[in-house]
Design goal:
Radius of gyration: 30 Å
Shape: rod-shaped
Length: 70
């Protein structure tokens, strides 16, 4: 029984010791935050490009309408 208890304690220590260190967890957190910020910036850039395209089309339509009136 003592051997089984000792074996389970050692196994528990090995399992907890094999996890990522605090530095690795922090590095992963920073990488995840950076990836998320990059994704948000890409979406915002795409939305701005779409808004600019719509504005340019509206300007072209206004110029065309102005040209027909003359």
């Amino acid at each position: 029984m003592k051997k089984l208890f000792l074996l389970s304690v050692v196994a528990g220590l090995v399992i907890t010791a094999c996890g990522p260190s605090a530095e690795e967890r922090e590095a992963q957190r920073i990488a995840d935050s950076t990836r998320q910020a990059d994704s948000i910036a890409a979406v915002e850039a795409a939305q701005k490009a779409q808004a600019d395209s719509i504005a340019a089309a509206a300007d072209s339509a206004a110029e065309a309408a102005k040209g027909k009136k003359k």
